[in-house]
Amino acid sequence: MQDLTDNALMLKVKNGDLDKLGLLYERHKKRLFGFFYNLGNNPSVSEDLVQNVFVRILKYRGSYIGEGAFTAWMFRMARNVNYDYHKKASKENISTGVSPEDVKAGTEDHINEEIEKKGNTVLLKQALAKLPEEKRELLILSKYRELKFSEIAQIVGCTENAAKVRVHRALKELRTIFSQLEIA
Amino acid sequence: MNKENFETRSIDYMSGAMSEEEKRDFMKFLDENPEYTDQFDELARTWKMINVLDTPEPSSKMDEAFFEMLSGEVEKMNKKNGWETLMEGLMMVFKPQLAYGILLLGIGLGVGYYMNSSDNTNSTQNIVSNQETENVRQKLVLTLLEQPSANQRLQGVSEANKFEDVDEMVIKALLQTLNNDSNVNVRLAAIESLTNYVDKPLVRQGLVKSIPNQESPILQITLANLMVALQEKASIEPFKQLLKEKQLDTTVQKKIENSIESII
C-alpha cells in the first residue's frame, strides 16, 4: 500500500514513470475541477485549468521533494494556475465566471422550495464571487475534508492557526454578503 | 476564551478536527456565552451552505485531453531519453582528457606525416647523392687501376667491389687489368672482383677470353675453379689451347684437365 500513496506515486512520476500521473489524475480530478468551478470558473474553463495543473505538475516534477502532503503541493499549483489564468484573462478581457445574466435568469422564478434552494445556491455563488480572491480560495480549500488545516496553511503560506482565523473571517464576510444579496 | 481562540475553535469544531472532550468543552462554552452562540450559528449555516455547494461532474472530454497530453509527454520523454543517451555518449567522447589525447594523436600524425614526406625528399636526395658517389667511385676505380703502384691498383680493384650496379666501363677496366696487369696479386684481385658480376655476359666472355693470356699457375687454377663453378662450356676451347701452347706446371695441367672433364 505504501507504493500507492500520493507521495509515492508522485515520486515515481518524478523519476520518470510518467504513467503514474494517470492514477493521481483519477484521484484528484474531481476535487480540482470543483476547486476551479467553485472559485467561479465555468465548467469548460475549469476543465482546462485542471489540465493545466497536471501539465505544470509534469513540468515541475523535478522540484517535488516528497515533503508534506502531495495535495498541498498540488493545490499550490492549482492556485497559481488559477491566478495566472485570471491575470491573462483580465488582460484579454475575457469573461471567465458565471455571467450575471445567467444568474439573474436563475433567480427570477423560485416557486417552490427546490427552486428556492437553487436560488440560494445561485446567491451563494454570487456572494462567493464578490468575496476577495484570497478568501474565496480559502473557503473552497477548507470545504475539502481531506485537506487538514495544516495543509491548507502550507498551500496559502501561513500558520495553521492563522489559516483557521482567516477561514472564520472569510465565512463571516461571506455571510454578510449573502445576507445583503438576499435582501436586495 | 478570547476572540481569536473562538475563531480557531469554531473552525476546528465545524471541520471535525476536535476530540469528543474538546467538542463538549466548546459546546459548554457556547451555552455559557450566548453572544458567541449566535455568531457560531450563523457561521455554521454558511459553512453548511458551502459544503453542500454542488459541483457538476467534469466531462469525459477532460479525461480524453488529459490522457492525450500524458501519452504525448511519455512519448516525448522516451525520445528525449534516446537523445540524452546520445548526448551523454558524445560528452563521454569529448571528455577533456580524451580530447587532449586525440589532439596529441593528431599532432603526432601530422608531425609523422611531415617527417615522412621530408624523408621522401631525403631518399631522393640519397639516390642522387648515391649516384654521385657511384660516379666518383667509378672515376676513382678507373684512375686507381692506371696507377703504377700495384698497391694502388689493388685498392682500385677492391674499390670496384663496392659498386651496387657495376658500369660497363669498370668491367672493361677490370678485364684489362686481369689480362695485362704485371702484378699477379692485382690480377687475382681482379678475378675476385669480377666474380661478383658473373651474371653479366660481358664478364663471362671476358673471363673466358683471358684464360689463354694467363701465365701464373695460381691464376690459371683460380680461373679453372671459377669456370667449373660456372659450368662455362665456352671455356673448354681456351683451356685446351692453353694446354697445347704453354708449358704448364704439371699440377696446373692436371687441374685444367680435370676441370675440362667436369665442365663437359
Molecular structure report:
The complex is a heterodimer of chains A (184) and B (264). By secondary structure, chain A is an all-alpha fold. Helix content of chain A is 74%, strand content 0%. Chain A contains 9 helices and no strands. The longest helix of chain A has 24 residues, at 160-183. Chain A is globular and about 55 Å long. The N and C termini of chain A lie far apart (54 Å). Chain B is an all-alpha fold and 264 residues long. Chain B contains 12 helices and no strands. Chain B has helices spanning 3-14, 20-32, 34-52, 60-93, 96-145, 150-160, 168-180, 184-195, 201-210, 217-230, 236-245, 250-263. The model of chain B has no long low-confidence stretch (mean pLDDT 83). Classes of the chains: A mainly alpha (184), B mainly alpha (264).
Could you say which overall geometry of chain A the principal axes of the C-alpha atoms support?
globular
How would you characterize the largest beta sheet of chain B? none
Q: Strand content of the residues of chain A, in percent?
A: under 5%
| Unreliable residue stretches of chain A | 99-110
* Coarse shape of chain B: rod-shaped
Stretches of chain B where pLDDT is under 50 for at least 5 consecutive residues are none
What order do the helices and strands of chain A follow?
A: HHHHHHHHH
Count of alpha and pi helical runs of chain A: 9
Helicity range of the residues of chain B? over 70%
